[in-house]
């Protein structure tokens, strides 16, 4: 367990050991879950990278929507 202290401005510094485990991220999704604060690293540029790769492969948004619809069939 690693402790982080809340400042008077409600800020936390993430301990180096924690950041090293999850990778470097500038943004975190924050939720409260069963009395716990859960931080999840978010990489805003990741969606653009995925869209670019899909375009390179010739996969359209319709193709993705069709695949999702197919996968959700019971």
Q: Which residue ranges are poorly predicted, with pLDDT under 50 across at least 5 consecutive positions?
A: none
The sequence of SSEs as H and E is HEEHH
Oligomer: single chain
The percentage helix is 25-40%
Number of helices: 3
> Overall 3D geometry?
elongated
Taking the alpha carbons of the first and last residues, their distance comes to: 42 Å
The major β-sheet equals: 2 strands, antiparallel
Q: Report the structural category.
A: alpha+beta
- Total DSSP E strands: 2
**Order of strands in the sheet with most strands:** 1-2
Q: In what range is the share of β-strand residues?
A: 15-25%
Query: Mean of residue pLDDT?
Result: 89
What Rg, in angstroms, do the CA atoms define? 18 Å
Describe the structure.
- The protein has 74 residues and is α+β, with helices and mostly antiparallel strands.
- It is 39% helix and 19% strand.
- The chain has three helices and two strands.
- The protein has a two-stranded antiparallel ribbon.
- The radius of gyration is 18 Å and the shape is elongated.
């Amino acid at each position: 367990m690693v402790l982080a202290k809340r400042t008077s401005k409600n800020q936390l510094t993430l301990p180096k050991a924690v950041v090293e485990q999850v990778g470097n991220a500038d943004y975190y999704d924050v939720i409260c879950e069963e009395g716990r604060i859960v931080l999840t690293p978010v990489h805003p540029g990741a969606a653009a990278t995925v869209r670019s790769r899909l375009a390179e492969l010739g996969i359209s948004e319709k193709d993705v929507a069709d695949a999702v619809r197919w996968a959700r069939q019971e």
